[in-house]
Structure formats: structure tokens, C-alpha cells
Amino acid sequence: MRFRTALIVTLMLLTLLSGLTATAQDGPQAFPPDVVAEIQAEMDDLTAGGLPPGMVVWIDAPEYQFAGASGFADLMHGIPMPPEGAFRIGSITKMFTATVIVQLAEDGVLTLDDPLALWLPEVVDQLPYGDRITLRHLLTHTSGVFNIVEHDAYWADIFAEADIDEDAGSVTLDCVQRDPHDTLARYVYGKDANFEPGARWSYSNTNYTLLGMVIEAATAMPLAEAYRTHIYEPLGMESTFLDCYEDPVIDVVHGYTGFGDTMSDVTELHESVGWSAGGLVSTAPDLIAFARGLFGGTLFDDPESLVAMTTPAPGSSYGLGITVQADYMGHAGYIAGFRTLLNYAPAFDTVVVMLYNNDAADPELSQADVLNLALPLLRAED
Fold first, then answer.
1. By CB atoms within 10 Å of each CB, which of 62, 220, 246, 364 scores lowest?
2. Is the per-residue pLDDT at 182 higher than 90?
3. Does the pLDDT value for residue 283 go beyond 90?
4. Phi, psi of 215 (to 5 degrees)
5. How far is CA 189 from the centre of its chain?
6. Would the CA dihedral through 45, 51, 53, 56 be positive or negative?
7. How far apart are CA 118 and CA 289, in angstroms?
8. Is pLDDT at 379 greater than 90 in this prediction?
């Protein structure tokens, strides 16, 4: 681990010195002006309709980079969206959680086929087939465990606790550091399994809540500290944090739910129950750094670790915390007020980050429209 950390820090210093973080407007790696204009126009068309009210797009290729923004970070005060704006990234968090688990496997702290009972014996007795669930089942969403957010009381509890100001058009839910044991007791225990472990695939946030608990048990440190030690610090990420579980390191842009006259500001709605399944805040530059560290292999000592993460479970398109598609691999995120996307295109060694500050608009639907404008140059690189 010490060798990997030193290597990553060295690589990041060289990267920073080479000007990787230069923007599309002033850096030597900028796309040509006509491509920049076309991508910006596509983004402006999206935000002009209000869905989303604001957005950030970064495209990071070996020879080119686009770092753009459109619309507003704060509608009420008319504050333009900055390219480095911070967003709640929702389920992209799962990529971070899976990465730490795989690193711990490399270090011999655990194995991916460890039974959950080895790490959380007090939990497995409360889960159907709990004694048969492995960490790999959790990582690949093949455990069959009931999904926290599908419980009838999940959203009811959030809005019962929230302060809804109809005049101001805002919803507030103060930060609460929730004990994951309490979360499981409230939303998972007593619920039937969807299927026996390994029998099928079904996305469940509970899987990654359990993995967060395993990380804390295996490292003897809070989850936020484990992320920082294993990922942020080695990669030089300075604008990422676990919402409500550590002090913020950057202000989040305003997030909105609904559309048109029904749009509400939910910036202060802290859905902290997401935790290891969806609780991170980050920026496009930090997500680029993470993706480069992950898909470039520098976060691991063994190349087979990345192979394992990007190999889908049988009958699915999901590896270990990563969705694997024909042209991309990565993850999308959804949380109140925000929709996000982090993808890597292996054919072009290109990372794409799309961040929306509205949960009614889906960046996955617009990714091709944005990226296709840059494809001729990316193909020329290849």
C-alpha cells in the first residue's frame, strides 16, 4: 500500500505540472474552437429549457480536454454555473466504496468471497440467507437483499423530518449522521429477500450500505476517513467529501427538484441515509482524477483488480461498483436535486463527466449528443 500511495502521488504531481487541469478556453489541450462552440451550444440548449437549470460537462482525452458549464448554480440569485462547481454525486459513490473494498482485498485484509458473517455477524442473522451472502454478492448486486429506498416509509420519513417552505419554494433536512445499523433496522430487517444470493441481479442500495459497514469494521476508521486515506489523498483530490459525515470542503451548487413552476430548491435537503451508497459530494476535476486513477490502474498494485471490477456478474452489465456497457464503463448517480454521470470510454481513453443540478433531467440521455461532437477528434487520436 505504501508503494502504491507513493507512486500515485508522484504521478499526480507530474500530471499537475503538465497542465492536465487547464480549461478548454486557455489550456494547451483545448479542443478546437469550433468543437468547443458546438459542445457549448448543445449544453446551452439543454439549460435554456430549464432541465437542467445548470450543468457541468468535462471531457478528458489524452490530447484534448473540454471543461464547460451552462446555466445557473443558483437560480434565485442568477449565479452562473462554474465548471468546477460541486455536486452531490449520488450513486457514483458506489465506485468509491467498491474501490476501497478491492484495495483491502489486495492488501490481504479481506477477500471478495468472504462471507458477510465474517465482518458483520450481528447483521446476517437479521437478513434472509444472510449466512450465504458474500462481499462479492454485495459488490455485484447479486445478494438479493431488499433495497432500502423501496421501503414504503423511506420517502415518507424524509419528508416528515424535512421543513417544507412553500412560499420560498425550498425543502430543508438538516444533516444527521445516521447509524447504518438503525437504517437497516428501519428499512431492511423483516423484509423478504428478492432471491437467493447469486441467483439473479437486482440493484439495491442496501448492498453498498453493508459494504460501508464492512469498510469501517476492516479498517477500524470512519468511512469518510477510509475514502480520504485510500482515494482522495493519493490522487490529490481536494474537493470531495462525505456529506454530513465530515466537514464540508467546498460549497455545493443549488440543487432542484421538479420543473417549471413546480421546481423547488432542495440544496439543504441532506439525504444522509445514502452514506456509502450515495452520499459523496464532488467536482468534475476530482472525478476526472478519480477515474484516471481507477481506470489507469494506479489505485491498484495488481492489474487483475481492475479486470475484476470491470467484469460483469453473470446475467448483468454490472461489475464491482461499475456498470459496463458496449462503449462505456462507469456509473450514474441520482439523489434529491442532482443527476450525475461518470463514464470512461476505453476505445478513446476518455473520461466524461456530466453533472446536473436537477433530479428530473437525465444526463445519460444527453451524453451521446455531447460526446458525438468530439468523436471525430478522438477517433483521429486513436
1. 220
2. yes
3. yes
4. -60, -45
5. 26
6. negative
7. 33
8. no
Q: How far is CA 210 from the centre of its chain?
A: 17
| C-beta separation of 255 from 358 below 8 A | yes
* Mean pLDDT, residues 280-300: 97
Query: What is the DSSP-derived secondary structure letter of residue 193?
Result: P
For the chain, give the mean pLDDT: 91
| pLDDT category of residue 380 using cuts at 50, 70 and 90 | confident
Query: What sign does the dihedral 355-68-34-65 (CA atoms) show?
Result: negative
Contacts of residue 316, Cβ cutoff 8 Å, sequence gap at least 6: 140, 141, 142, 201
What are the two backbone dihedrals, phi and then psi, of residue 5, each rounded to the nearest 5 degrees? Answer: -65, -45
Give every strand in the sheet of 241-242, ordered side by side: 86-88, 280-283, 241-242
Q: Contact 93/280 with Cβ under 8 angstroms? A: yes
- What is the per-residue DSSP string for 222-289? -HHHHHIIIIIHHHT--S-EETTTS--SSPBPP-EES-GGG-EE-TTB--GGGHHHH-EEEEHHHHHH
Number of domains in the chain: 1
- Least confident among 28-32, 218-222, 234-238, 284-288: 28-32
- 313-324 burial: b if 16+ Cβ within 10 Å, else e: beebebbbbbbb
pLDDT of residue 157: 93
Whether pLDDT at 133 is above 50? yes
DSSP code for 64: -
CB 233 within 8 A of CB 8: no
Contact 163, 171 (CB under 8 A): yes
Q: What is the mean pLDDT of residues 278-285?
A: 98
How confident is the model at residue 17, as a pLDDT? 32
- pLDDT of amino acid 8: 39
Q: What angle do CA 119, 122, 125 make, to 5 degrees?
A: 110
Can you give the CATH number for the domain in which 88 is found? 3.40.710.10
- Mean pLDDT confidence for 190-195: 96
Q: Is the dihedral of CA 319, 323, 324, 329 positive or negative?
A: negative
- Report residue 225: phi and psi, to 5°: -70, -35
Q: Give the domain extent around 61.
A: 2-381
